[in-house]
Every structure is written in C-alpha cells, then in structure tokens.
Amino acid sequence: MVREPHLLLIPYPAQGHVPPLLKLASKIAEHGIKVTFVNTEFIAAKIMATMPEKAEKGSLIRFVSIPDGIEPDDRNDPFKTKDCMFRVMPGHLKELIKKINQSDECEPISCVIADICLGWALELAHEMGIPRAALVPYGPPTLAISFHVKKIIDAGIIDNDGYAMPMTDEWISISEETHPWKRNEFNWSCPEEPMIQKIFLEITCAAAETVRISNWVLSNSIYELDSPNCDLVPKVLPIGPLLASNQSGNSAGSLIPEDSSCLRWLDKQAIGSVIYVALGSTTTLNQQQFEELALGLESSGQPFLWVVRSNLVNESLTRFPNGFKEKLAGRGKIVEWAAQEKVLAHSSVACFLSHCGWNSTTEGLSMGVPFLCWPYFADQYQNRRFICEVWKIGLDLTPDENGIVTRHEIQRKVRRLISDDGIKSNSLKIKEMARKSLVEGGSSFKNFERFISQVKSC
Ligand code: UDX
Q: What is the pTM of this model?
C-alpha cells in the first residue's frame, strides 16, 4: 500500500522565523500534502491571538504545540531561553512523533522540516530514521559563511570566540568566488557582548553539521540572486521568496496584531511618495537615536509610515520629540505593527527604511521597493552589503562618529534615494527576477517541484 506523505514542520520560536515556515507549510499543503505544524505553547498562544480566522475546516495543516519549559521571568534572557529550549523541547517532539506514528487516525511522519537553527530537531529525525530538510530563514551569504566558518577558524583568521585576529586583513573571504566581508559583518559579530557573540558563533558552527545530516536544505532565496554563495553549500534548493501574497488564505504567522488602518492611510497618499520605516521584531534604539529618526523623517518632507513597536526604544517610555505628532498633521502615520507585505506592495510606497532582516529583504525586493539600510545585528550586515553593492537596490545610512544616524543623514539619503533612477530601475529588475523564479519554469518553482516529488516518494 502506498503511504500518503505527512510532513512535520517546526520553526525556531521567534517572529523572524515562524512566518517563513508557515508560508512553506501553506505551499506544501497546496500540493495536497498533510502537514503537522509544531509551535511552542508560548508562540501558539500569540498566533491564535493575532489570526483573524481560526484553522479552516478540512485544512491539510494541523497545528499542535509543545512546551518550551521556559519560566516567565526567564523569557528575556537569551542564555536561559536557549538552554531551556534545547533541553526540554527534544523530549516533547520525540513523544509527539511517536504518538503520531502509532496513531490509526493519520499517516506516520514521512519527513521533518525544521528551521536550520533547530539542528536538534533534525538530529532527532535522523536518529528516528525519518527523512529531513533544513529550512534556512536567512540568506545564502550567511548560510555559506556558516558552512565554511570552521575553515577560517582553522586558518587562524577568526579565534574560537569569534574575534578576527589582529593581523587579519581588512577583508575576510570564505572563497574566491564570493564577496569578502569586513570583520564586523559576520553574523556572530557582537564584540561588546562576548557571551552573546559566543552563542551566535556556536549557532553558526552548528549549521554546518545540520546541513550534513539533512537530506535537503531549503533556502528562502532565489538561485539567480546569489548563485556563488548557493553553490558553496551542498544540497541547497532555493525555493523563495516565501511570500504570503503568493498563497491563498491567511498564512502570515504574525506574533503581534496588525494595524490595518495604515493601508487605508496609504490609499490617500500620492503614488511613490511614502517612506515605510520598519526595523523588524527585535531591533531597539536608544532615546536619542529614536528622536533623531523622528526628526529625520519629519525633515525629509515626504509622508511616512513608521512601525513603532512597544519595545522599539530600550527605555521604559518611548518619548517622541516635543510637538512631533501635532506637527505632522496627517503627513506621518505611526502604527505598532503593519501588514508588511501588503504595505510594501502598495503603490504609494517609495522606499523602505529597513534593518535588513532577511524576511524584510526578500519582501522588499519582491515588491521592487528601494531600501535605505540600517542593519542592527546578525546577518543584517551581510544583507545590507548585497542590497547596496551587489544588487544596487538601496543606500546605506552611515552613523556619525558617536554612532548616531543623524536627522541630516536620514534627510540626505531619503532625497538621494528617491531621485535615483538607477536604483529604482535595478529594484524593478530584481522584482521581475523574483516573479519569474516562482512561476512555471522558474528556478524556485522547479526546485520546489523537485522537492515535493522526492518527498512524495519517501
Ligand atoms: C530576525 C533577523 O533579524 C533576521 O535577519 C533573520 O534572518 C530572521 O530573524 P527580524 O529581525 O524580525 O528577524 O527581521 P525580518 O527577518 O525582517 O522579519 C520580520 C518579519 O516581520 C517580516 O516577515 C515582516 O514582514 C514582519 N513584519 C515586520 C510585519 O509583519 N509587520 C511589521 O510591522 C514589521
């Protein structure tokens, strides 16, 4: 008897990681394949609170949740949360898979797809003899660096704590075919926080082993965007961009409720006029930097839509400059969270002031929106370099000698970006490349079909 495929998907429990896995789950279900989607109980409660519709009857995606074991007081401590999750979750996932496999009500799990940052879930699948795929939520440059990091450590270019050796050249390469990096552009680079840097380096190094034990490595990217880095890692299948807008139904996986009033506000703005400002789910600014950004937007003279999360400012109270909101008189719209893909697709949007998280990068380039880049940590510096120097679809915001991106810098770069026809034209070319990759005959389309046909025969 032929067994129907049944895939188990598990994301890393964070805002930047749940949506791409959820979009992948929808794409898989559209091929008539049953999916069990595993969240932590903490994340599941947040998604349920933000999703306008509950799971549809007859849907091929079933949501289940497992405990992460994290005490409420420890949720903001990156060391405790990582230790706890990696200690507690594997046992629960193993029990869940065993239970499903023994049940008469559904097919056993035929493949596990886990975020590459959850290597333990793929090790577990390996131990249990289940085929497995890693989903990479960051871009090909970061994946290639992760796969080859040991090479630069063994060569004495980077030490075991992630610091570049003092004698190292300004530029560090992992291969002659790919772009070299500055020492502060690596995804673990966080020199002022040695413990965090160590954790990031550990996670980076672990990715290579996860690639080795995976049958497939699914990348939320497009082969043509960065073929040299894709070619540096075995088993990579670029299947992106993973976008909610390509799929039917609600698949966003937002952990914060979206304020849809900004779409109505965008409808009233002139075509190609609005600066969309969103710095992802974890970036924080100090009060001085927050005020400079506010004043920079005000002095740009353009209308702007600004996502100000409740925890964007790393102080107890977010204070706008005196009289700021009153002076805007409809020219600025501030929301706590937006429907980002819909905003980027809106014809009123002129540019995207972004922290260059990989999801934001793929969403912006798929909609043909030029970027103003303001990276904050991890892979964002690598994404910024590709945006500004490889694809040439954006400009960089440069901090002054005190580390502040001033209002003048913001005003200057907004003006330059909006009047740069070359960048606009490159953005539209990349948008077309993204569109073509997803339609029949395109590279991501073909890679995904290949994956699905192999998974069906597991
Ligand atoms: C993090 C890292 O920053 C990123 O580099 C990594 O690759 C994944 O994890 P995050 O900082 O949140 O993610 O940035 P990003 O990857 O851009 O993801 C943010 C997501 O939130 C995007 O999908 C975006 O559409 C969504 N978003 C953001 C909203 O839906 N509304 C908003 O108002 C802001």
A: 0.95
